[in-house]
Protein: Glycosyltransferase
Organism: Bacillus canaveralius
Amino acid sequence: MKFVSIIVPCFNEEESIELFYNTVKPILEEIHMISYEFVFVNDGSKDRTELVMKELSLKEDCVRFVNFSRNFGKEAAMLAGIEAAKGDAVVLMDVDLQDPPELLPEMIHEWHDEGYDVVYTRRSTRSGEPPIRSWFAKQFYKLINNMSDVHIVDGARDYRLMDRKAVDSFLQLKERNRFAKGLFMWVGYRSKCLEFENVERAAGSTSWSFWKLVHYAIDGIVSFTIVPLRWATYFGFFSASASFLFMFYVIFKKIFLGDSVSGYASMVSIMLFFGGIQLIFLGIIGEYIGRIFIEVKARPHYITKEQSEDMEVVKGKRSTTLVVRRNS
Ligand code: UDP
Ligand code: MG
């Protein structure tokens, strides 16, 4: 019998955890060819998430948890879950039930019986999302797919199943700036895409602000392509050629038409234009240098405060006394 690990990153999700567990568990019970475990990762929540998670893991044998020392972001939480997972396959799921658990039987079937190594999902619609956010998301996918050689499917979710082979390959990628959607695609393997309609959150609210999404998009582009750096070179060639042509025009005008130098306004606008362009490219170069800085420091991706393995077992039952384990 194959063993599947369900990884669930949670950030301020006290209302969703039990609901999630009670919805997903019966569906997994129905799939006879597998046994399963849940790995909940508490990404430094400020609410009662930690307590709810611990209580659940005490009650249920198939539940484990990893507890971060602070909020490290969803990418880190997913990584921690994947590292802790013991399964022959790993499934990543959001706790808010926006990743429809009804897809699980089909996902597991495609992996178990059809031999796919990766079964990922995409939302075919973005209903219920502000139109401006959908528009930006669409542009982002267009941009990143034009610039990098890894194809990231528009609307692809983190909700996916990966075989142990793919998981191990994914874990070999040690970079700090993790854009998991791209990394999953980069790893490759025989993949199958399942589509579903967008589902509204079951409880709580999204923790993604507009600016958080903008930073996520920049992270994605910068960690997958160096094309923006090349734009500076192209633009440099273009403006140098344009300035030569303009110089010839000015000389021609002076010699043959006797025009004196004029055009204060055009001068100022050209200066401002190039000043702006230079700042933009300095910014782009800065984005890459900043990431080199972060990679060089090589800090751990996250710090685990405690995890369910640390709980002492008392008379067959786990006690709530926790041994704090420090990551160094
Ligand atoms: N999440 C997390 N750390 C964060 C932000 C989010 O672990 O810093 C988790 C969150 O609890 C949820 C999943 O990532 O399980 C997706 O988050 P959310 O629903 O807020 O994002 P959306 O579905 O709106 O993209
Ligand atoms: Mg969500």
Q: What stands out?
A: Residues 9-11, 13, 43, 71, 73-74, 77, 94-96, 98, 206-208 surround uridine-5'-diphosphate (ligand 1) (CB under 6 Å). Residues 2-143+154-205+300-327 form a domain with the Spore Coat Polysaccharide Biosynthesis Protein SpsA; Chain A fold (CATH 3.90.550.10).
